[in-house]
Structure formats: C-alpha cells, structure tokens
Amino acid sequence: MMNKKTLFIGFTVMLVGIFAIATVFYQNLQSLNQSAVSNEQLTQLLRQGAPSKGDDNAKVTIVEFLDPACETCKVFFPFVNKLMAKYPGKIKLMVRYAPLHKNSDKVVRLLEAAHLQGQFWPALEVLFAKQQEWTLHHVSQPQIAKQLLSALNLDQEMFAKDVLGQKVSQALNDDLAAVKSLQVRATPEFFVNGRKMQTFGYQQLQQLIEQEIAKHY
Question: CA of 172: how far to CAs of 63, 77, 94, 163, in Å?
C-alpha cells in the first residue's frame, strides 16, 4: 500500500512539474514571438516631437508608454537606461504618455511643457525620484508636482502658458488616441520596432531588444 501511495504522490509531483515547465516554456515562446502591430497602428505608434533619446539613426526603437505616477515605470526607468548604455548607438527610446492614474493627465501636461523647453528628462527624473511626495493613494497631486519642477531651469512664465496651451493638448490627445488604438491597458507598456512585449518583465524586454539588435546589426 505504501509503495502505491508513494508512486501516486511521485506521479502527481511529476505531472505538476511538467505542467509548470510547459507553462514557463509557453510564456517564453509567447515572449519570443511577439506579433507586430498592424500597419495602421504602426502609424500611431510614433509621434513626431515626442520625448526621445539615443541615436536618431539607431535601428532599434523602443516606444515606452508610461504614466509618471506609475510605480513600476519608476522601477523600470533605470533598467531601460542601463540597456541603452549597453548598446550605444543601436537603441533609440521614445516616450509616449498613458496617464492611467487619476489626475496624471495634469502631470503629463507639466512634463510635456517641460519638454517644450528641452527639460523632459530632468523633469521625469525629478518626478520619479520624488514620486511619493506628489502621489497620494495612487492619485496624482499636480500642484505638488508643479512645485517640485520649479527647481528646474525653466522659463516659468512660458512654462505656465504651455501647460494649458494647444501644443501640449495636441500631444496629450495624440497619445491618448494611441493608447486606445494600441490597447495599452497598463504601464509601462513597451513596443520594440513595432513589436509589442506580450509578457511583462525585465528578461522579456531585454530579449525583445536583443532579438531586434541581432536582426539589424
């Protein structure tokens, strides 16, 4: 009887192990076979004038949809920078806005207004570094965020006008339309050369980038 029980337990454990391995394999396969967005969606993926960094001639373009109030975006920020430093000249990063948290659209306006003065990256770094100061229970507090950004080298009068101006509104509206079209439901969301990252994680993003680098260099 004991032998049968032991065999049954062993068989069950083996089945659970096989299922777990198959699940991981399937997820990895999905990650490695991300489908490209449609041609129609591709036109919405890139926005002329959106915040970007890296070599303009880079053959690998990462498009990141982020929300400045998103804690995971903050955590991923140094990882993306690390990847860009690892492959200098081969990667370009473009940021699109996906203000999914309450009031984040108002903070996005601050970021885009800072961008108009060439201060997007310093502004984003300040907001990420002090995220806990201007978010309360995942709700953005734009007045506090604005106060934090006052330390940057900005023309404050122009900044105040731009925050409510047409250029910022157009950028925000374009990005909101892209969020809808590309079905961005969480942040950060990454697309690499038009391929959407299907499962989320550091390894998956790095794999996707390295696949495109291997393909184009």
Answer: 16, 21, 15, 11
